[in-house]
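Below is our example:
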Amino acid sequence: NAGTYTNTWTVTDDCGNTSDVFTQIITIEDTTAPTWTTAATALNVTLECSDTQGLANAQAALPIAADLCDTDVSNIIKVSGSFTASSGCGNAGTYTNTWTVTDDCGNTSDVFTQIITIEDTTAPTWTTAATALNVTLECSDTQGLANAQAALPIAADLCDTDVSNIIKVSGSFVPSQCINSGTYTNTWTVTDNCGNVSDIFTQVITIQDTTAPTWTTATDALNVTLQCSDDQGFNAAQNQAPVATDNCGGTLTYTKTSGTLQKGNCGSTGTYTNTWVAKDVCNNTSSIFTQIITIEDNAAPSWITVAGTLNVTLQCSDNIGLTAAQEQAPIANAKCTIVTYTKTSGQFVASQECSNAGTYTNTWIAKDDCGNATDIFTQVITIEDTTAPTWTTEIASLNKTVQCSDAAGLEAAQALFPAATDLCDTDMANIEKTCGQFVASEGCSNAGTYTNTWIVKDACGNTSET
């Protein structure tokens, strides 16, 4: 583009005389450097650190130059700058690229500078789905709770390859209407190298108590069979109560429904059916626990009257005493029902030696409403005859005084006979007479006495006075 033009002139006069040569030299030079037609900051760009395509495009960009004389200024030389990270963020920084261009005459342009600014303004995002760590557990599931508390969301960042610096804020347990249920709300955030903070990731661990209490008392452990008279045993059975346990603890509330006696086949027999339910603090209700108290009556009545107390020994003549003895009856006690008595009246059994003496043997059994019978109660009424016959003839009424010559009178006197009676023996004809010999008086042999004596025995051998 530089060089010279040399122009020469001569002049000839009319006579043909020619002048010396006049020389003109026009010097062409090129001292003007090319200039950039691309605006100074036109290639500057700010990109997200993740915008690899944008970075490639920016790096491929080229400024355009023009020269006043050189029509071909494509020999642009680029000096690519390395990435210079910012002090606070390793993913942000700048690339500074420069270009120069030289024309054919070696004139070099000013330096064209391109600044590619890389920034990181995008927060990490959670790859774990928003509710993926939420869980609902039974209050007793300690392992499940431990697993849930150990769970961790995963984050990703467009530029930061290490986003493990996740910060967890563990929420305390917030009970709901019942103390065993409620929630733990845990939150996480993660910050990339450039201080961009993610949205909050929230985990809600819901603790519920839907499990009813269970009975630790065995199903039939409180069942009992008692005699109807066993008041102490009955009170003890009624005061018993089953025990339940709950998987999550807390105070259990027991509700007892006391059953009334359901009558059995007899007397006071039957069953009481008591039921309980247990509720935990979350109102979960257990299954029904049932207690059956069976009341039975298989005990016989017992005799209150002491054995032998109705036995009596009476004279055979004591009809009032016999009637009274026959009207007596023993008393029995059945602790739960009324007593029904059955008497078997024994016939008079005479003794072998004495028909007026002997025994009446009466027996009783007592039954309650359930057919339980006592042992036999025996009454022995002993009839004896220990009373001798007595004379109905007055003591001196057979004494006679007769003349020694009065044979007929003596005979009549000797023929006299006293009469006897017995309380029980109606036949007093077996009177025995002992005839006395004539006993003369001292002063007169024709005078004296006959002393006759009589005794009588009843059928039982009781002998009268003489």
Q: What stands out?
A: The chain has five domains: 35-119, 125-208, 214-291, 302-384, 390-456. The mean pLDDT is 94.
